[in-house]
Amino acid sequence: MELDVKVLQEKILSLKKERKALILAHNYQIIDIQEIADFVGDSLQLARQSAEVSGFDMVVFVGVKFMAEMASILSPTPVYIPDPKALCPLAGYLDAQKIRGKKKEYPGVPVVVYVNTTAEAKSEADLICTSGSAVEVVESLGVDRVIFGPDAHLADYVRAHTSVEVIDIDERGHCYVHNMFDLSMLIELKEEYPDSIAIAHPECPIEVQEQADMVGSTGMMARTVAESDAKVFLIATEMGMIHQLQKRHPEKTILPMYEGAVCRQMKKHTLEKILDVLVNLPSKNLVTVPEPFVPHIRKILEKMNKLRGQGPATRVKVES
Ligand code: 13P
Ligand code: SF4
User: Fold this and answer.
1) Is residue 173 part of a domain?
2) Is the C-beta atom of 132 inside 6 A of ligand 1?
3) Sheet with 39-41, edge to edge strand ranges
4) Where residue 306 falls among pLDDT bands split at 50, 70, 90?
5) Of 65, 67, 87, 250, which is most buried with the most CB atoms under 10 A?
6) Is 124 close to ligand 1, i.e. is its CB under 6 Å away?
7) What is the pLDDT of residues 73-117, one digit of tens each?
8) Is the dihedral of CA 182, 187, 193, 197 positive or negative?
9) Could you tell me the distance, in angstroms and rounded to a whole number, from the CA of residue 165 to the centre of ligand 1?
10) 203 lines ligand 1 (CB under 6 A)
């Protein structure tokens, strides 16, 4: 029998206290989950939050597996994921062998990988980035060329915002959700709402990025909508972000550029699965990274976290 959302949320909040658990949720999670989280944010904000965990005995990370792995490396406490099958398909474009092949082809050129990669792929990288830190991370190397992957659209974004030559590890690498956006969607909505602000995620195709008023991570979108005086926003990213922005800003109009942009992997998490983790602490939900990879990945994640960056994740008011 399905439990009512409110009942489930109350059970989670009470058990969360008992277990001394911190709940971190990505911006794409449904509102019901965001409401019981301590922090909601983009991958960079959640990485920073994971590194600052103190006074808790465990973390429940509600996002795709590779983000949870990043949290497990940075957090001093065990990290659990509500659905261990929440895998980001973008990560499938890179394996260690492919990266080693590129390194051979371009000896001495540093490798930057997106956080949405396997631990094995990260172990071959000189630095890691998120969408919110990609430009800064690449520029921090102070070089003319970088090897970059797996997202070819994010690579285009870096090309457009730096003078660095960006070599794709796999030109086919893309996120199937952000690849759904095309320029005609933006143009049509802009005609209808000429005073709107169009914001695109850097995983969108470059034509969409070029015509948008702003391009940035989901955290940047949250900040922009909160701080701008504009009344209408056209958003090109996953639908969870649209629902969240509309709920937080009922006085503004938040329009998705495409309603079909739903990440099935992020949506695998449910309140029931979060409750199950808190009740049973199942070992299959405990996030681990093979030990040999951990020291290097921790080092490069800490380097990324130290770069100047965006504001903190949204602290959510939790009632218990
Ligand atoms: P953000 O870091 O911007 O939240 O992006 C994560 C992601 O998976 C985008 O699809
Ligand atoms: Fe991966 Fe795209 Fe889903 Fe983000 S939206 S988690 S990049 S599949």
Assistant:
1) no
2) yes
3) 79-80, 58-62, 21-26, 39-41, 314-315
4) confident
5) 67
6) no
7) 999 999 999 999 999 999 999 999 999 999 999 999 999 999 999
8) positive
9) 23
10) yes
197/215 Cα distance (integer angstroms): 11
Per the confidence metrics, is the pTM higher than 0.85? yes
Indicate if 135 and 204 belong to the same structural domain.
no
Collect all residues with Cβ–Cβ distance below 8 Å to 216 and sequence separation of at least 6.
131, 132, 199, 201, 202, 224
Q: Is the pLDDT of residue 281 over 70?
A: yes
Which ligand is closest in space to the CA of residue 151?
Answer: 2
Ligand 2 probe mutation, 265, 267, 268, 269, most atoms within 8 A of CB: 265
Please give the number of the atom of ligand 2 that sits closest to the Cα of 178: 2
Same domain, residue pair 104 and 60: no
Pocket test for ligand 1, best of 27, 40, 69, 114 (most atoms within 8 A of CB): 27
| Co-location of 58 and 26 in the same domain | yes
Question: Among residues 145, 168, 191, which one ends one of the domains?
Answer: 168
Q: Which two tokens stand for residue 213?
A: 């008023």
Residues 76 and 95 in one domain: no
Question: How many separate domains does the chain show?
Answer: 3
Per-position b or e across 40-71, b if 16+ CB within 10 A of its CB? bbbbbbbbbbbbebeebebbbbbbbbbbbbbb
Range of 56's domain? 5-86+266-289+311-315
Same domain, 241 and 277: no
CATH number, domain of 117, equals 3.40.50.10800
Q: How confident is the model at residue 44 (pLDDT cuts 50, 70, 90)?
A: confident
The predicted structure's pLDDT at residue 320: 25
Model pLDDT, residue 2: 61
Q: Are residues 223 and 278 in the same domain?
A: no
298 inside domain: no
In a domain, 261, yes or no: no
Give residue 140's Cα distance to chain centre.
21
Element (H, E) at 225: helix 218-227
Mean pLDDT across the chain: 93
With pLDDT > 90 as the criterion, what percentage of the chain qualifies? Answer: 90
Is 294 part of a structural domain of the chain? no
